[in-house]
Amino acid sequence: PHEVWLCVLHHLSVSSLNNLALSSQHFYSTATDPSLWTTAKLAKTEANAVRLGSFFKVARFSKLSLLDLSHMKVSSDQISLFLSSSLSTPNLHQLDLTGVDLSSVPPGLLARALTRLCTLELGSTGLTQLQMTVFFSHMLSSTTLQLKNLNLSNVDDTVSCGTVSSVAPPE
Fold first, then answer.
1. What is the average pLDDT across 5-27?
2. Are 99 and 123 a contacting pair, CB within 8 Å?
3. Which residue, of 17, 79, 103, 134, has the fewest CB within 10 Å?
4. How many other CB atoms sit within 10 Å of the CB of residue 170?
5. C-beta of residue 75 within 8 angstroms of C-beta of residue 46
6. Which residue has the higher pLDDT, 97 or 40?
7. Which candidate, 47, 40, 91, places its Cα nearest to that of 70?
8. Shortest CA distance to 66 belongs to which of 3, 154, 149?
9. How far does the chain reach from its first CA to its final CA, in angstroms?
10. Higher per-residue pLDDT: 144 or 169
11. Which run of H or E residues covers position 91?
């Protein structure tokens, strides 16, 4: 049965799942089941950066909860499209954007997309003072704040200071 295959395939690496998906139609549908793809660390390639805006349209990534985009070279448009599409992905809880240049992302989009996460890595992202102000203002006004861990290491000292853990929601 399908459920048994999923239990077995859960122990395979991403590379092995990809290879298995290429072997037959049956294994493609099983190996690309969204329940097997809850975490992802994308290869830092230009091809992946170009496809970032449509990432969540791929069925296998619909239940993705953890995504590592750290140090990926992406344009402002590419990361903005990604953040816009992430708004309709309720399962995404952890995002690592360490080393990704976010300085040109519209502050409102950044705030809406990132404050709904539980764990967020924003070290060395070039955030501007305006982006940080809008981000924290959005956090304070949110009635559904999920953010528990926020890493702001290597962000300009005039903008922030270090790592914040266990952010309490407003009362």
1. 84
2. yes
3. 103
4. 9
5. no
6. 97
7. 40
8. 149
9. 48
10. 144
11. none
Residue 109's pLDDT band, with cuts at 50, 70 and 90, is very high
Q: Which tokens is 56 given?
A: 């969540």
Q: Which of 44, 86, 40 is nearest to 67 (CA)?
A: 40
Our CA angle for 72, 91, 145, nearest 5°, is 95
Rounded to whole angstroms, the Cα distance separating 77 from 101 reads 11
Question: Which amino acid is residue 103, in one-letter code?
Answer: S
Residue 20 has pLDDT above 50, yes or no: yes
Q: Is the pLDDT of residue 66 over 80?
A: yes
CA of 41: how far to CAs of 9, 46, 162, in Å? 18, 15, 24
Query: 130-153: b or e for each residue (b if 16 or more CB lie within 10 Å)?
Result: ebbebbbebbeebeebebbebbbe
